[in-house]
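re: that chain from earlier
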Amino acid sequence: MQNRILLIEDRPGSFKQLGLELGAKDIQVQDAFGMEQGLPHVDSFLPSLIVLELGQPKGDGVADLERMAALAATHQIPVIYTSVHASEEYRNRTRELGAAGFFEEPLELGYLMIVIQMSLAKAQGLAQLG
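^ sequence. v structure.
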């Protein structure tokens, strides 16, 4: 089964390079602008992994973390968070909610790709055990 990643960003195009890198690795990508557009894709797109940019224009970073964690579907989906506001509060809360990773922007794309690939491999391994 092809891996699918949902990218929820706060500015259109902020994950453009990431999307290109993922596509080159034969990973299907769905872009969404903001939480309101992104949340419905969790159920309809059925992503293998979610990358969520915190501090979105119509959102509150910590509230967005909690909304994402509250979705039953995301309990089995690794979530990687990114933010230009890398406050200790964001870092601690993402850890508490079981994030697969937290990255400060601007993104170090090479390292992010490694964490994405490791998270996908781990999720696939767990799915095969279940």
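Residues 17 and 123 are 24 Å apart (CA to CA).
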